[in-house]
Amino acid sequence: MSEAQLATRRHWSAQRERGNLLLMRFTAFVARNCGRRLLSPLLHLIVLYFFLTGRRARHSISEYLERLAAWSGRSDLRPTPRRVFAQFMAFADCLLDRLDVWRGALRLEQVRLLDSDGLRAQLLATRHGGRGQLLVGTHLGNLDVCRALAELGEQVPLNVLVHTHHVAHLNRLLGEAGEQRMRLIQVSELDAALMLDLSQRLERGEWLAMAGDRVPLHDGRRVTVDFLGRPAAFAQGPWLLAGLLGCPVNLMCCLKIDSRYEIRLERFLDTPAWQRGQRDATIAGWAQRYADRLAQWCLLAPQQWFNFYPYWESTDA
Amino acid sequence: MNAPAHSALELEIAQLVIDTLNLEDLAAADIPPSQPLFGDGLGLDSVDALELALALQKHYDIRIASDDKDARHHFASVASLAAFVASQRAVCAD
After folding, report:
1. A3, A39, A56, B13 — which has fewest CB within 10 A?
2. B50 contact A CB<8A
3. Where are the beta strands (DSSP E) in A133-187?
4. Contact A244 B47 (CB under 8 A)
5. How many CB atoms neighbour CB B71 within 10 A?
């Protein structure tokens, strides 16, 4: 197998794309027709199966725990089979919660909002004019925070930028679930038309959201930063967009702490801009700062790291 | 230096290039209309192109379609950009 093929196989999109789509269909179906009590044992069995058969996923989580323990100096985080398994179970739990979110069973009142920068007020303010902003999310914790945010923003449209090709299908699923405010937009590559579209959405007061912790497979725009003490490739995409669109950037994550969800919102960049000639260095600086913040969040909920693929630049190849 | 004469639109676009990309040490008349914007010419790259495309679309109220195979050609120089903008404005005026 060539190096390129190997890289493709190792990439998250190779293993998650199909599974995610099936899972969302399944979740939407179950969300409409049955409840958590019925699904819980089944889902845990499925996750057990993935744990037993997913050698790469097990290794990846083990590597993550190893790095986190070394970086933080907390030996209680070092990987053991039990801790790695607990990570898979946390994922099952997260999926069940997503089901509740989809059913509308997890109400906003049950979620704690940590928003010291007053971003929700800014989100709500765009209903009455003003420009939208960019939200950068993560696969640490529950990504369906986006849907909760759509609710937080009440009538403010939220555009989620994704790399998947299944956008039309997923938008239909969202529509069936009665979701009017959230739209998925495919961004496989930045081009002039997309930039104009996104820029116009911001001008209309719509907000944009995207994940900051996964690199697209066919996009060379990535930057190597230090994450938990080792070099890892991060996407340049969110930071490029921010600089091109000149909009404020905020970080968000949704962690389950003591069986309660906490949505964290914080301002990251007020007016992203770069000096020509300094662009790459500026973007690398933002990406590094993001990775540093992500590392701190990992310590808040070590088990909720849901990137089940090799994350760091290969040490095992 | 004997720079070739700019049309009004070419000067305007050269100024837009300078303002958008913060090329403060240049004046619009310093960019010859036929000088390549990318590579050996002015040395712009693909991100500059995105920045420029966004500014052009906003400023002239035109659209650059994502499947436009000629986009690279349009962005070759100030002169080709001026020709493209003129043609797009004619289309939009119809």
Report:
1. A3
2. yes
3. 134-137, 158-162, 182-186
4. yes
5. 17
Beta bridge partners of A185: A161
- What is the ipTM for the molecules in this complex? 0.85
Q: Check CB contact under 8 Å for B63 and A276.
A: no
Instruction: Tell whether B55 lies on the interface with A, counting CB pairs under 8 A.
Output: no
The domains found in chain B, sorted by start residue, are: 8-21+36-93 (1.10.1200.10)
CA-based nearest residue to B54, from A273, A189, A206, A195? A195
Q: In angstroms, rounded to a whole number, what is the distance separating the alpha carbons of residues A136 and A160? A: 10
Nearest Cβ partner of A192 from B21, B47, B66? B66
Structural domain span for residue A20:
3-304
Query: What are the mean pLDDT values of chain A's consecutive 10-residue runs (317 residues total)?
Result: 52 54 66 70 82 90 97 96 92 82 71 90 89 93 72 78 75 72 82 91 93 78 94 94 95 91 94 90 97 97 92 70
Tell me the whole-structure pTM to 2 decimals: 0.86
On whether residue A238 sits in a domain, the answer given is yes
Cβ <8 Å between A199 and B54: yes
pLDDT digits (tens, 9 = 90+) for B1-40: 455 678 999 999 999 999 999 888 889 999 999 999 988 8
- Please state, in angstroms and rounded to a whole number, the distance separating the CA atoms of residues A270 and A249: 7
Sign of CA dihedral A239, A308, A24, A220: positive
Which chain B residues are Cβ-neighbours of A192 within 8 angstroms? Answer: 49-50, 53-54, 57, 64, 66, 71
Q: Give the one of B21, B47, B64 whose C-beta lies nearest to A192's C-beta.
A: B64
How far separated are the first and last CA of chain A, in Å rounded?
12
Chain B interface, best mutation among A189, A190, A194, A196, by max B CB count within 10 A: A196
Query: Does the distance separating the beta carbons of A275 and B64 come in below 8 Å?
Result: no
Enumerate residues 6+ apart whose C-beta is below 8 A from A167: A184, A185, A186
Chain B: residue whose CA lies nearest to A188: B66
Closest CA in chain B for residue A242: B51
Query: Is residue A171 situated within a structural domain?
Result: yes
Q: For chain A, what is the domain count?
A: 1
